[in-house]
Structure formats: structure tokens, C-alpha cells
């Protein structure tokens, strides 16, 4: 659980959530993605997606890899602004698509425990239009 001690510094939400976007969800090499997962996530993380719940580092890494494979070689996630957070909860807005094109937008909300992502909610915005 996050500490209630006001002397305990907050994690660097911006660094952590940007690293997750770049090193996990934009990483096409499975070995590098797994190494990033080990660094950025607790041992048994949970990810909540609109279509289901994914448990464990390997399963989350597999979802990220499958998403990149299905979306094509130019598909990439981009952070929008700076991640914000406090009391163990951080959020980062993002957009994704081929190159700079925008196919989907959303927000990652992460529970951070001892500097690592414990739970990640992937919140997709409704399609424009």
C-alpha cells in the first residue's frame, strides 16, 4: 500500500508512465519488453482493459506484443503532456496510431507501489465523430 507518511516522496509518475508507454507498449522486441516489465512492474501486476483483466508481467507483455503485431509496423503510442499523480495514483494521457496519425486516444491510470506499477487501467476515449 502507498505510505501515508507525508515525508515519503511521491514516485516520479511522469518517468514511470512514459517508460511504460515507450519500453513496454512501444517495444517490439519481446526480450527488451520483458526486461522493462521486470523493472517497471511489481511481481504480480494487474491490467484492466476495456475487454478484460490481465494478470502477471508475462501476460501483460504478451498483450502489448500482440497489439503491436496486429496494428502494423508503424503503430506507435505517444504521450500527451506530463503524467500527474499523488498518493500512489498516476495518470498519463496518450494517443496512438500509425506514425503521427491518431487512431485512438486514451489515458493510462496506474496504482504505484514502492515505485512500480501494481495496477494499470487502460481507459480508451470514445471514437471521435
TrEMBL record:
Superkingdom, natural source: Bacteria
Pfam families xref list: SnoaL_2
Database matches in Gene3D superfamilies: 3.10.450.50
InterPro entries associated with the record: NTF2-like_dom_sf, SnoaL-like
Protein name per the record: Nuclear transport factor 2 family protein
Species of origin: Paeniroseomonas aquatica
Residue intervals of the SnoaL-like domain: 24-119
Amino acid at each position: 500500500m502507498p505510505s501515508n507518511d507525508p515525508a515519503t516522496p511521491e514516485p516520479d509518475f511522469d518517468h514511470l508512465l512514459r517508460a511504460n508507454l515507450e519500453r513496454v507498449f512501444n517495444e517490439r522486441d519481446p526480450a527488451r519488453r520483458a526486461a522493462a516489465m521486470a523493472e517497471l512492474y511489481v511481481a504480480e501486476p494487474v491490467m484492466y482493459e476495456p475487454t478484460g483483466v490481465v494478470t502477471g508481467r508475462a501476460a501483460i507483455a504478451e498483450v502489448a506484443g500482440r497489439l503491436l503485431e496486429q496494428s502494423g509496423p508503424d503503430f506507435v503510442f505517444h504521450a500527451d503532456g506530463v503524467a500527474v499523480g499523488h498518493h500512489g495514483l498516476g495518470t498519463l494521457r496518450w494517443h496512438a496510431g500509425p506514425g503521427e496519425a491518431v487512431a485512438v486516444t486514451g489515458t493510462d491510470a496506474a496504482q504505484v507501489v514502492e515505485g512500480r506499477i501494481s495496477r494499470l487501467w487502460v481507459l480508451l476515449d470514445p471514437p471521435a465523430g
